[in-house]
Design a protein that fits this description.
Blueprint: H1 2-14, H2 16-66, H3 90-95, H4 116-121, H5 168-179, E1 186-188, H6 190-193, E2 199-201, E3 207-209, H7 227-231, E4 241-245, E5 278-282, E6 287-290, E7 296-298, H8 308-311, E8 332-333, E9 351-356, E10 361-365
Antiparallel strand pairs: 1-4, 2-3, 3-7, 4-9, 5-6, 5-8, 9-10
This protein binds zinc ion (ZN).
Residues 49, 106, 108-109, 245, 342, 353 line the site of zinc ion.
């Protein structure tokens, strides 16, 4: 026994040079090998996300085939704007096809789910105000949200046992929605969920944005895109962006407000419910301004130019900063709700992956490394804007980011 130990000792001493060799080899492995493994793991995530987005694209096309109105979805994953997300919105639309066994979550993103979870849970003492046309308030009380008390319920006729915002019982229902896989970290484009601006004419004959409500909800938009909209679109479907990873934000209103499940805890970052629709950058005030109800799109005295005064500003590209035209405001789609945080391969910077309306998925380089894809907002280096620079990353060649799809607004309006 003793001899054996001695033998081992002596073997140990003889191993010293080998050990040094191992240490050197290990250091080399960490210097060269480990980052390579790390990179390849990240690249696998990019590929998984891309494939998942393509599957989402196929599913949305199937939804459109099944829908009598040919809609590609029934709206956003957004309780207040569209309705209870276990029955309404693109997530339930594709989950109910049975095409996905798990919720559609990006394997790379920091986001843990959709920010509508906060609306579903609610805050004690604060009514959850619907952002739907009044005749559609019922959509907030379907599926697992049936017993939820919300601002659209008439207090006179409300049943006593409705679950108020912030209650534990209500949270349990939200947890059940998650258990049934109705969650996502992805963010649809305004084109997918709203498609077009609802318009009207004012007394002077100007074409205006409908005064019914904001263009980001059903009151101020025409609703989810339909097959016939794509077929008659003046923008090719392979340049019409539909879904991308959701960005996260340190802002309190983008953090989960309560513990919901083993994987979702209070404070977790959440994705927006859709992109922000048409906005312009106000360089003086250093803020983005959304398209407000009642805004003049085409003045009566320029009606011969059809939609050009608003829809067809000269959009920016790599060489040209664009021109805001009539109002000298460069209206573009707000894309700050999207993330470009995927590893793009050894040479490329981080990239964003966008599902297009034709079902393809495009990989777009985040040139300035801010994790966003700027469609051409001239924000300078104003970090508060959400974009780190005015480098145009989402170019016209890749994806249309104009304020509207020109063919989507019937110029001789139906509202006349
Ligand atoms: Zn992703």
């Amino acid at each position: 026994m003793q001899a054996k130990c001695q033998q081992n000792d002596s073997q140990g001493r003889h191993r010293w040079p080998d050990l040094i060799g191992i240490v050197i080899a290990t250091s080399l492995l960490f210097a060269i090998g480990a980052p390579a493994i790390y990179r390849s793991q990240n690249y696998v995530k990019t590929i998984k996300c891309t494939n998942q987005l393509r599957q989402v694209g196929v599913a949305l096309h199937v939804v459109s085939i099944n829908d009598p109105k040919e809609r590609f979805c029934t709206g956003a994953y957004d309780y207040r704007r569209d309705g209870c997300p276990d029955e309404i919105g693109w997530v339930s639309d594709i989950m109910d096809l049975g095409a996905f066994e798990e919720p559609v979550l990006c394997p790379n993103t920091k986001s843990r789910g959709g920010v509508t979870l906060n609306d579903l849970i609610g805050v004690q003492g604060q009514p959850v105000e619907p952002l739907l046309p009044e005749e559609q308030y019922g959509q907030l009380s379907v599926g697992r949200c049936e017993p939820f008390l919300h601002g659209g319920v008439d207090p006179e006729s409300a049943k006593d046992d409705l679950l108020p915002p912030g209650s534990a019982a209500r949270r349990d229902h939200v947890a059940d929605i998650l258990k049934a896989n109705y969650n996502t970290t992805y963010v649809p484009s305004w084109f997918l969920t709203r498609w077009s601006i609802r318009t009207d004419y004012d007394r002077e004959g100007n074409l205006i944005v409908s005064k019914e409500g904001p263009v980001t909800d059903r009151r101020g938009s025409t609703g989810p895109v339909r097959r016939r909209d794509l077929e008659t679109s003046t923008i090719s479907s392979n340049a019409t962006p539909w879904v991308c990873d959701g960005s996260t934000s340190a802002k309190k209103d983008r953090r989960l407000i309560a513990d919901l499940s083993e994987t979702l805890s209070a404070g977790d970052p959440l994705s927006a419910t859709q992109t922000g629709g048409p906005v312009y950058w106000n360089a003086d005030r250093k803020v983005f301004i959304p398209l407000m109800p009642g805004t003049v799109l085409v003045p009566a005295n320029r009606k011969d130019e059809k939609l050009k005064p608003f829809c067809l500003d000269e959009l920016p590209d790599e060489e040209n900063p664009g021109d805001g035209g009539m109002d000298q405001k460069l209206w573009l789609q707000d894309t700050r709700q999207w993330a470009a945080e995927h590893y793009g391969g050894s040479e490329a910077k981080q990239v964003g992956v966008i599902l297009m309306a034709d079902g393809s998925a495009k990989t777009i380089s985040d040139v300035d490394g801010d994790g966003r894809l700027n469609p051409g907002f001239q924000v300078g280096e104003e970090s508060k804007s959400g974009y780190a620079s005015d480098t145009v990353e989402l170019t016209l060649k890749v994806a249309w980011s104009g304020p509207c799809i020109p063919s989507s607004i019937p110029y001789k309006g139906t509202f006349e």
